[in-house]
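Input chain follows. Return structure tokens only.
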Amino acid sequence: PTSTLTALPYGASFDVLQDRFFAAIEGRSKWAHPDQMSLRATCFDGPWAPRRPPWVYNHEILVELGAVTSLHRSAKKYGVPFDVVLLSLVLAATFRASRNLSQNLDESGSRDSKHLNSSSPVLSLPLTLYAPMRDGDLNDAMVGLFSDWRDATVGCTANTTLLGLCLDIADMIRHRRWTVFDPIQNSERILVNILPLDEQPRGPNQFRQTRAHEYGNKRSASGRERRSWRQPHRPMRITLEQEAPDAWWLSLDINASHFPTAWCRGFVRQMRNCIEELAKQPLVPVLEGSGS
């Protein structure tokens, strides 16, 4: 039997987006209207911009081939979406690198260990996530910019394991345990954007989405010099972008006042360790893994 799709009413997409907009403008309850627009203007950063802008630098990491295969196996084994597993390990590596750097600075007596307190029993990362926001009836069939920002805070204690962190973040996203974006706190939160490919062939000609035109031969090219500049900037912007079925790029725009280059070197090392440990030792504590 052939199935037919019911046509959407004319203007349905606009009506939904308009209602979300007015819910925000009219100050309706966020509990009653959790899908209201966040009005994510960056103009709120202005009054708090420092007199001397910090250094900001970009670092890119390529996760490909065997690493991607290993992550797919772990994702399937534990029933967690691949992109959520990848995000979880990025956050785990962030926790580890930050804790290690703080401990090293504390031991050396440096005053620069302000971004994390190594003696604290609980570490946390304040995140602002790009969320699809297509949870309503027929939203998946609508054409429009539904994505919006949502705030969430991810915690990590001495008892948090790699697998436990993955399951906690998956549960947070599945049950929408986040709040409407708070523009006043915008400059203090880490922005996360995940850009997977649509790997499903579409149409009679089986077209597939590709980003080959964007990346060219970047995977095989030699590494470029790290770019840096001065400007007011949030602690970090994390972009996880899929280039191909077997390749993901991690692009980090990092505020050096929060996460110096020494932290970045530790993050790269811990990212590799986290991928290996999730496959072999998933119950290892996040803060006590290899090299921690």
